Amino acid sequence: MLNKESLRHQKCLISLVFILLMILLFFYSFGTLCGPSISYNVNRQLTTITTTLINLKLSPVSNIQEPYIFSKKQYLNETRQPTVNVIAFLVASPTGDMRLAYNPYPRLRERVIQLDERLGDNKTADLIIFHTGYPFHGDVTSIMKATARNVLFVNVDHIFYRFSPGFDPHIRDPTWTQRGKWNYHHMCYFWFKQVFELKIIQQYRYMMRLDDDSQMLGKWPNVFEIIAKRQALYIANRREVDFDYVLPGMTLVRNITLAFIRKYNIRPRNPDMMADIFNRTLETPNYWNNVEVIDLSLIRQIEVIDFMRWVDESRGIFLYRWGDAPLRYITLALFVNATQILHLNKLGLGYCHPC
Ligand SMILES: Nc1nc2c(ncn2[C@@H]2O[C@H](COP(=O)(O)OP(=O)(O)O)[C@@H](O)[C@H]2O)c(=O)[nH]1
Ligand SMILES: [Mg+2]
């Protein structure tokens, strides 16, 4: 009697759960079908752990997954020819006190329109806007609509705020501060090393970096075509120097460079640039890389990756604010022949910064 009763109870419960499930399923599919059409898609790059492990083994770069990518390709359902060229910006979305925070997107939109007018690549290169924080929907779509290029908004919060291994930002103060306490250092770390480890970058061969506080002057030819045709590895902006009395510890970068050369028995490919680094007492040279074009095959070479790791592990970026510009200069001096570096001024191309 008791058993029959509990059996009936169980049956009732199961039917009730089943009905509830059906209702839930109905509302879920109804919501999916009839929900407001999403104007851009979130491309959550969810790959299985196995794939990631395989990738890591095969590739010398760490292939960091970017969790949030808003892509115009999906937004407009566009079918464009895939390209090996990419133009990269980095900006910070407004955070904190919104009344005081600076919103970089309106100016970036202007720069993107200008880029389309001035760069003679027929708007074929992709545009990646690396950003921290959360741009408003309107910021994203206004830029996507302003250009015929394929645009990708890539959130880099998951790597941007990282420090070199073993560096403790809590017990130290920086020798240089701009925006937040460590923001400038993070920016240098990003452009020197982190950007090349992002998975999204792996599909490209040439990357042009541009900053939102700079402008191309006049019409530019297709620099991607030029670097490829001339089989060059880098297009450099003008030479500048960092002074040790402004950035204490800047010249210590020579020690790590020397140690690296000795350890790996390297013959620097560019003796003139190397001499430029070592022959000045308090100055460290750099190319002002707020604009640069890089053949990414350069930084995919094992020894270049090793050098970037050495620099990273020395913690000099955070201890002494070694900038990505002098670090790039040293990388070029170590690994690139003079003939493989093209110069904007020799190409007759103008650029201003800040402007
Ligand atoms: N997301 C993010 N971007 C930054 C930050 N600091 C600088 N940037 C970007 O990095 C680029 C270079 O920064 P900038 O301050 O102009 O460097 P400077 O020209 O070397 O003084 C600019 O395009 C900025 O938008 C930051 O803290 N967060
Ligand atoms: Mg700047």
Automatic annotation (TrEMBL):
The chain crosses the membrane at residues 12-31. GO terms for biological process: cell wall mannoprotein biosynthetic process; protein N-linked glycosylation. It comes from the Eukaryota. InterPro entries: Glyco_trans_15, Nucleotide-diphossugar_trans. GO terms for molecular function: alpha-1,2-mannosyltransferase activity. Keywords: Membrane, Transferase, Transmembrane, Transmembrane helix. Belongs to the glycosyltransferase 15 family. PANTHER family: ALPHA-1,2 MANNOSYLTRANSFERASE KTR1 (PTHR31121). GO terms for cellular component: Golgi apparatus; membrane. This is Uncharacterized protein.
